[in-house]
Amino acid sequence: MKVVIVGNGPAAASAIEAFRKVDKDSEIVVLSDEEFPTYAPNCMENVIRDDISEKALFYKGGEKFYEKYRVDFRPRKEVVRIDNKRKVVITKDGEEISYNKCLLAAGAYAFVPPIDGADLERVTPAKNLYDAYRIRNWILSGKVAKAVIIGAGPIGVEDAETLRHLGIDVTVIEVFDRILPRMLDREMGKLYQKPLEKEGINFLLEHQVVAIHGNQGKVEAVEVKKRGSDKTFFIKTDIVIISTGVRPRTYLVEGTDIQIHMDKKLNKPIGGILVNEYQQTTDSDVYAAGDIASGIDAWGNHRWVALFPPAQQSGYVAGYNMAGLRVKNTGLVDYNAVKTRYVTAGSGGLFEDADESFFLEYMEYLVKVFLKEGKVRGYQFVGVAQNPRLNPRNPILKSFKRIKTWEEKVLIDKGLGLEASGVLYHFFLKLNREFKEIHRKLVEEMFIRALASPEKEIPLFTREEV
């Protein structure tokens, strides 16, 4: 059997590991439009700061990963579409590669709005490793004093804090009324924003970019207006980072009968390639996993969740099933946390349809719990670090003489992180538990790890007898 995997991120790597646990002999071909081995996509701000080792960045072991699992890895081989009737994938250079089973794990691409000037030099998204290296090189050139970031989602906020702690004046422009609009409600967003403003980051909420202006091909300013107004003003800048979200690479299945996640009433796409609990598309020999797919969440609904944990989870499920097992995904792991140094935030589940919500406070931490019919529907948290100190091992910080004027602002995050968010998610949402008084007390005192009893967990996926 020949398995072709389109993409080389967390979903692809997890699928390879799962497949090889079952099938030691079949051929695996991995096609990637990038030149790098699998890397951690949620560490791009660490790459910009130059405070992550190659071992941590290329977390699967770099090139040795493909040797270990006997994978034919073909970098810089961009796939543009699939012909599932003929069972081939077609590359940008016209090559057709046949398969018996195919996994679409090409992820999502950075969405760049149609803004005049978005093609100027020193304007970039911040989605992949090429982007991160590009931004870092601009900073190391010594010619960047001001930066504008368009979008206050997780990537935008993390990059804003990174650039600010590298001594750069940062302005973040967000069209919504709060930062992290898909993670936090307005109340929690304000709490999270305040410490970042104290660090010197300027936020323009309910504003939108009209155009990006430059001279001789290089960016010089961003033209902005308040939402609902016709009056514009200019912000001088040396670089612009566009962080306005991502879109799944559903173009790979255009012209096929493979279904995409659609709003049937409006007849428009609202997610990725549609998959069942086995990560199969509407073609049983074509699977999809990670940011390219819309899978089934904890409540049994199809949702598009472009996050690292569900990419890994769905990749394992796809790998096992392509190898001949019958393994079911028990629901998307829908939780996230933002890795800023001074203040951290996280969320999981849903918030819009909750019956009630309430706050739980502990020291500098604040948790907001959303209930529906007595059970946790979702949660949000904000935590502020204490006892801040400079990380002396950061090599990029040493290259700036001006570090002494702001080194006291470079902080180590001691707040709630992704692990705590995952515990809350699994305990309450995956297990569908009622939120009782004992749980309230545990969360109030931040004994969150006490909820992570292995005996009370359920697996991320389950195997069925074939």
Explain the overall architecture.
With 466 residues, this protein is of the alpha/beta class. The protein folds into three domains: 2-108 and 247-329, 3-Layer(bba) Sandwich (FAD/NAD(P)-binding domain), CATH 3.50.50; 123-244, FAD/NAD(P)-binding domain; 335-464, no CATH class. 23% of the residues lie in helices and 31% in strands. The protein has helices spanning 10-22, 44-49, 54-57, 63-68, 129-140, 154-164, 186-198, 308-322, 395-398, 418-430, 437-444, and strands at 2-6, 27-31, 72-74, 79-83, 88-91, 96-98, 101-104, 108-110, 123-125, 146-150, 169-174, 202-205, 207-215, 218-226, 232-236, 239-242, 246-248, 260-263, 268-274, 286-288, 293-296, 302-303, 326-329, 335-338, 343-349, 356-362, 365-372, 375-384, 461-464. The chain has a five-stranded parallel β-sheet, covered by helices on one side. A five-stranded parallel β-sheet has the order 9-16-10-11-12, covered by helices on one side. Strands 24-25-28-27-26 form a five-stranded antiparallel β-sheet, sandwiched between helices. A hairpin with a 4-residue loop joins β5 (88-91) and β6. The relative contact order is 0.13. The model is unreliable at 401-416 (pLDDT under 50).
